[in-house]
Amino acid sequence: MSAAHAPDSVILRESLASTERLISETISRAEDLRALALLPDLEKCSLAAARASDCLAVDWSGDRQRLLHDLRNHVGAISGYLELLLEEHTDIDRRLATNLDALRAQVGELLAATAPEANAALTPPPPAPEGGSGTLLVIDDNELSRELLGRYLRRQGHSVLAAASGAEAIAILQHSAVDLIFLDLVMPEMSGLELLKRIKSDERLRAVPVIIVSGIAESDGVIRCIEAGAEDYLSKPFNPTLLQARLNAGLQRKRWHDREEAYRRELERNQRFIRNTFGRYLSDEIVDALLESPQGLDLGGITCRVTILMADIRNFSHVCESHSPQQVVKLLNNYLGAMSAVIMAHNGTVDEFIGDGILAIFGAPVSRPDDARRATRCALAMQAAVHGINARNREHGLPEIAIGIGLNTGVVVAGNIGSEQRSKYGVVGHTVNLTARIESYTGAGEILASQGTVDEVGPGLETGRSFSARPKGMAAEVLIHAITGLRGDDGASPLASGAGGERGAP
After folding, report:
1. Measured between alpha carbons, how far is 85 from 100 in angstroms, rounded to an integer?
2. What is the β-pairing status of strands 135-139 and 159-163?
């Protein structure tokens, strides 16, 4: 082995030989003084020193980076176990303490020779992490390095899982939730970089911070890891203070992410509630608008211009008298279900059902420039849908029905009405009352609309009879028109007339 192939090979061999000798002497002294509690860590120091010697004895003309990584692993293990021993045993016999002080100084020289940037590794332990403990995963093929880091982290109050390979780590991550991962970069079979990419490609694991811990600190490797999604990078042997700082930062970011994720899940639950609740009465488009502006669910109202649609079944009282309650309920469910679908298909809001009556709103909670036109198309489609309802009624031995529809456009107060315990979205105002009066004039299969609605619908509206009326409670007469069709942009009218039947009179 030439000096060109190993870093300061002569100095390292001499320093390592001195380290091994001092470890052996310290073990003997500990045995003589029956300081048996110190032996497990001293024996690990001895094992790491032997592996470091083996590492220096091989030909460095091959994978120099891997050999340097392994050498730093071994030297870092000597330093780490010695520091843990000194921290955990403060009542050491003075004679043994002399050996340990000499060993500590020698290990410092060895560290300086292998990893000059790690000079601060032999420092007092930093304080416990802020914000509580976490579940950490240490992935390292070197068992001494893996155990050393895991032991250090457990002393800080963390729960630690350990994996010796990428495959073992993947198996652990499939069944265990972790808050942060320490990942060795140089490993056989699956490199740390490969494993990092697999972790970050997994949607469930993507948010888990990964700190690379490696004996190789070359800039290209660091850049590749950061680009692949690593949170940070630490060189072996690690500086405890730096490790703690980066661990705390990583855990803090993970906790922020967890809080954001919890908020997102709560928001999704609320949105599901809104969608499940209002989706029965509102179109998907309107529900989406409510979800974007949840303040629209607060009590209160706004003044806005809308088109109101009211519909009910003609002679429904007779139907109720001549059929059983079960039949009436079945008929109503068929009717209201079909009509609700038509209203929502035209982006209307089903405000409420009052017996056989339907009140729908076009223009609240979402306003559009063609509200009156869509309400009119909806009314025509509802009359057309009666044919299908009657076909189903005949199949089930139920009576055929006919409906009347009133339309009116004007200003209302729209919003959530009620109390904090119970409220509903609705509209109030003169426009609502007038719509009810207009609807009361309809005959079977008829659509009646106010002049305000006719004016807003615009071109293409087809009308039949017109008449003036002074509805009950109104100060002035209103002009009312029968709607028979509405031509589209292509000139075609989807319904030339109502469903037929007798017309009402003012």
Report:
1. 10
2. parallel
Task: Supply 504's token pair.
Answer: 């009402």
Beta carbons within 8 Å of 487's beta carbon, 6+ residues apart: 459, 460, 461, 462, 493
Q: According to CATH, what is the number of the domain 292-486?
A: 3.30.70.1230
- Look up tokens 């079979």; give the residue: 189
pLDDT digits (tens, 9 = 90+) for 308-317: 999 999 988 8
- Report the CATH fold assignment for 135-260: Rossmann fold (3.40.50)
Q: Tens of pLDDT along 210-226?
A: 998 877 666 677 788 88
Architecture of domain 9-116: Up-down Bundle (1.20)
Quick one: average pLDDT of 32-43? 87
Kindly report the pTM of this predicted structure.
0.51
Beta strands in 117-224 (DSSP E): 135-139, 159-163, 180-184, 210-214
Examine the pLDDT at 450 and tell me if it is beyond 50: yes
98-101 LR contacts (CB < 8 Å, sep 24+): 99/22, 99/25, 99/26, 99/29, 100/26
Q: What is the dihedral of CA 373, 379, 381, 387, to 10 degrees?
A: -170
Q: Residue 490, Cβ neighbours under 10 Å: how many?
A: 5
Would you call the peptide bond into 459 cis, given omega within 30 degrees of 0 as the criterion?
A: no
Q: What distance in Å separates the CA atoms of residue 248 and residue 131, rounded to the nearest whole number?
A: 8
